[in-house]
Each structure stands twice: as structure tokens, then as C-alpha cells.
Amino acid sequence: MTEQQPVRIQLALDRMTIQEAIHMAQQVEPYVDWIEVGTSLIKEFGIESVRQIKQAFPDKIIVADIKTFDNAKYEFELCFEAGADVATVMGAAPDATLELCMQTARKYQRQTMIDLLNVSQEKRHHLKQYTDAILCDHVSKDEQEHHGQVAGSSSIQQTTTDTIANNSTPKIAVAGGITLETLPTILQQSPTVVIVGSAITQAHDPAESAQQIRELIHTFFSQSTNTTASI
Ligand SMILES: O=C([C@H](O)CO)[C@H](O)[C@H](O)COP(=O)(O)O
User: Which residues are in the Orotidine 5'-phosphate decarboxylase domain (predicted)?
Assistant: First the structure.
């Protein structure tokens, strides 16, 4: 598929080996834009997981979901030297850490994604100063599995609506249990990136699932006047 998608689809690869991750991404490659080396891969196999996945997909945007909380320069340099185009930091991290992530990403001409997991509204507002970052509204795996929450909750709407209303420039990503059923609500919030893991990787036919997600996004935007800023 070559047409310009208004929203990037980020495939999240978690809880599998590096070879399984590469095989999964090969199956769905035509339907996804960005590939996330999930936190679980980085924890289990190290930065080598980022290096091997970038080597396998040199033309894709590779997101290293390292979820940095401290030691920002060291961890972001590891990611970027391994080929990551985007690295993640927790929004709840100290300002010093966030600043160092932003500085390191700028030095490498790469991008920072700030994960808003468990971040207060006050801190979310504060984080909007990082206008060249991507802010990721994220419902965690544990909240999904133990509290029945999924992306598309009111807190997500709050952040996104504020961002649009203020015409500020951090881009918005949304993650956490996104499915075909929940995607239309999320698309109404005009994210730049939708992050989908299990709905594709656990599907009986991952390629079909990824294709359906892509087609839903295409249909949504061809039927509406919604637009998103591009990265
Ligand atoms: O960041 C993620 C999570 O913390 C690790 O499992 C995932 O990339 C994100 O949640 C997307 O995966 P799904 O929730 O399975 O769609």
C-alpha cells in the first residue's frame, strides 16, 4: 500500500523472541508504518533486539520502547547507536531526565516519545513544552488486564483535546489494548500515531488484522475532514 496514511500505525512487538518479532513484522509490513521494539524485548534480549530489527527493516521507523526513567543520555545513546529512530521516556521521570532525552534525540536528529502512563494532568500540561516530542497516552497492560481499561478513556480525550485547543505542537500517540472496535473513538481524537500490539500479534491472522486496521483508518479519514499534523 503506498497511499499516504493520515495516521501512522505503530506495530508493538512484545513477549516474543527477536526472530519471532522479525517474522511477525515481515507478515504485516505492508500495513504498518512504524515498528516498536517492545520493552519486553529490550529487557529480555537487550539493545541487540533494536539493532537486529532495524537491520531487518532499514526503511521503517523503529521505535525503541526503552521507557527510560533515569540515566537518559546513556540509554538514549544506546538506542540511537543501535539504529532506533524514536526512543521512549516515562513522562513521570524527573525534568532532568526528560531534558537529557530531548537533548540526546536532537543531537542524533531522532525523536523522543514521552509515555504518559500514570502522569498527572498537571504534569501532562507541563510536558507540552516539549513541542518536538510525541506524547503517548498509554493504558498499561496491567490496567488493561486487571482494571478492564483500554485506550480511548476520558483522560486521553482530555490531553488530546487540550493539545488541539491550544494549537501546540507535540504530536499524540495512543496505546493500550487498541482493537478494531475501539479504534474509531480513538481516531476522533486525531492522533498522529496509533500503537497496536496484541490485536495484531495475537490475532489468528496477523496480516489480515493489520490490513483491517489500515483499511479502517483509511475509510475513517476518507469519510471525515479530520486531519493530523505529520511528523
Ligand atoms: O507499551 C506497551 C506495553 O507497555 C507493553 O506491553 C505496548 O507497546 C502497548 O501497550 C501496545 O500493546 P497492546 O496493548 O498489546 O496493543
Answer: 8-213
* Cα–Cα dist 132/135, whole Å: 10
Structural domains in the chain? 8-229 (3.20.20.70)
Alpha carbons 89 and 73: distance in angstroms, whole number: 11
Best residue among 11, 63, 115, 138 to mutate for probing ligand 1, ranked by most atoms within 8 Å of CB: 138
Here the ipTM equals 0.96
Find the angle CA(99)-CA(101)-CA(102) to the nearest 5 degrees. 65
Does 91 sit in the ligand 1 pocket, CB within 6 Å? no
Give me the residues paired with residue 135 across strands: 114, 172
The DSSP letter of residue 17 is -
Residue 142 sits at the vertex; the CA angle it makes with 136 and 148, to the nearest 5 degrees, is: 95
The pLDDT of residue 3 is: 46
